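pls design
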């Protein structure tokens, strides 16, 4: 049931250059003036006209103007606006709104490299639709319909504004992003059901971008990454980062940017411990190993583990909570007294606009010692039932001190075959590329008709799937080397979308001198 495999560490991405949109067409509506440079005279425009970078546009109090680009992007200028097209080259598209209102629908090339300056803010667009207004005092108001916009103010503070959010930036600083009310006329298409419940994936994406921005400023590591081809022939920019929020934890971020599709998929691995862990993250594996079957009480142990993957709209998250290892009599295994986590609570959580309630736990497995059954282990597995509600599927108790009970595999106290995904799923595992290829597909159907699939591939930088002996299995994807691990997660609840991220172990070798790197960790 556990479908995510994490081999993760550190880097973020610069986006590959595409064709630069050369034609810029101004469509005036009323009294509109243009000048080619700041030193040129204003000229009235009565009909559609091509303009070049460096041109400045001014609308009257009763006129508007449209600015159209050959990549499909379009801007609409409101009344009494002054707008400058600064540059549209291979590095970025830069604009300046000096006064008035701008509404933008961004596509193609501009969607990943557009920057709009105002007297009080610099706005880096990573999305598709936004609207902004600059007042006579230089203050800026912005609301985002789709995508993400990174906003920097005059004080050096930064915020990421996500879909259905707005922000105000004064000359002396900015407010925090806030959700748009459904009664706000600027909300427009954003006023849909998604706007009235928490959007977990978008919130996490905003937080992640803020973290990486701060990391980039402090460590200047943004150049660490690479361009590759994925298993489906698409060009991908990969970047990975190692973050240390505290001395007791680390976070591994890995991002896949497909500029041609205007697509960002990303994920993270988080590990948190009871006490301080070494600066050398490769030593963490010893701490984890010491949690299980140690003859003495471990001095440190993992408290929390999380793997999270998202396409910025839908997400899948797997978490494991551990309690302190306790002394357990394992005589049934011939091991005597050993230390073992008092409980292990594993969950798989889906979120997105197609998920009932916006977010739900699809699967849960709890292992506890002594809490449910005195001096024994109890294993409980829960899955969603026909109504989509998490319900007990099976429960087993195990007397680990009894050889007979261990040999029998414990005692089952509950089993509901009607909601067992393995009983409901026609083909649980398959090998899409056939034997001899590192390509493994797992698929589960639940009682309410929902489904989740996970496909994992080891692929070269040129998009070739790794050849292996036999068929791929969980251990295949622990392979080290220059091959990238591609993980494709799909669900009937994702409304036709999927999550497709790559992780590149070779990037970690670039980071050895820049930051401490981690070893290999996996959910099996």
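designed seq:
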């Amino acid at each position: 049931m556990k479908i995510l495999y994490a081999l993760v560490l550190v880097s973020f991405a610069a986006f590959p250059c595409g064709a630069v949109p050369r034609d810029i067409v101004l469509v005036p509506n009323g009294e509109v003036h243009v000048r080619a440079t700041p030193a040129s005279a204003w000229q009235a425009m009565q009909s559609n006209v091509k303009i070049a970078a460096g041109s400045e546009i001014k609308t009257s109090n009763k006129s508007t103007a449209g600015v159209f680009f050959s990549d499909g992007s379009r801007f609409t200028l409101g009344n009494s606006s002054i707008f400058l097209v600064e540059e549209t080259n291979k590095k970025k598209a830069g604009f300046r709104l000096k006064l008035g209102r701008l509404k933008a629908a961004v596509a193609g090339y501009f969607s990943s490299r557009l920057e709009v300056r105002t007297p009080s803010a610099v706005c880096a667009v990573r999305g598709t639709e936004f609207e902004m207004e600059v007042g006579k005092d230089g203050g800026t108001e912005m609301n985002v319909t789709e995508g993400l916009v990174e906003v920097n103010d005059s004080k050096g503070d930064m915020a990421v504004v996500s879909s259905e959010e707005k922000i105000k930036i004064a000359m002396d600083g900015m407010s925090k992003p806030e959700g748009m009310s459904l009664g706000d006329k600027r909300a427009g298409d954003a006023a849909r059901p998604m706007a009235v419940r928490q959007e977990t994936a978008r919130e996490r994406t905003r937080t992640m971008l803020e973290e990486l921005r701060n990391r980039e400023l402090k460590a200047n590591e943004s150049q660490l990454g690479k361009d590759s081809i994925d298993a489906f022939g698409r060009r991908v920019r990969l970047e990975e980062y190692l973050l240390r929020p505290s001395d007791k934890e680390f976070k591994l971020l890995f991002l896949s940017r497909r500029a041609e599709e205007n697509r960002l998929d990303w994920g993270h691995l988080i590990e948190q411990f009871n006490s301080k862990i070494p600066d050398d993250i490769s030593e963490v594996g010893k701490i984890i190993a010491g949690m299980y079957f140690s003859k003495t009480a471990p001095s440190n142990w993992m408290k929390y583990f999380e793997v999270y993957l998202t396409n910025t709209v839908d997400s899948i998250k797997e978490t494991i909570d551990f309690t302190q290892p306790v002394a357990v009599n394992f005589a049934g295994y011939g091991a005597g007294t050993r230390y073992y986590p008092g409980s292990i609570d594993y969950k798989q959580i889906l979120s997105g606009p197609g998920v009932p309630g916006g977010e739900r736990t699809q699967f849960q497995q709890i292992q506890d010692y002594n809490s449910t059954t005195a001096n024994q282990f109890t294993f409980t597995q829960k899955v969603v039932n026909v109504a989509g509600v998490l319900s007990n599927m099976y429960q087993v108790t195990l007397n680990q001190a009894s050889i007979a009970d261990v040999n029998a595999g414990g005692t089952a106290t509950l089993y509901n075959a009607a909601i067992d995904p393995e009983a409901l799923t026609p083909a649980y595992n398959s090998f899409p590329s056939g034997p001899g290829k590192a390509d493994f597909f797992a698929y589960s159907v639940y009682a309410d008709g929902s489904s989740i699939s996970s496909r994992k591939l080891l692929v070269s930088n040129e998009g070739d799937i790794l050849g292996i002996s036999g068929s791929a299995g969980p251990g295949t994807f622990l392979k080290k080397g220059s091959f990238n691990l591609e993980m494709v997660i799909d669900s009937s609840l994702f409304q036709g979308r999927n999550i497709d991220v790559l992780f590149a172990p070779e990037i970690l070798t670039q980071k050895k001198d820049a930051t401490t790197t981690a070893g290999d960790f996996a959910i099996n």
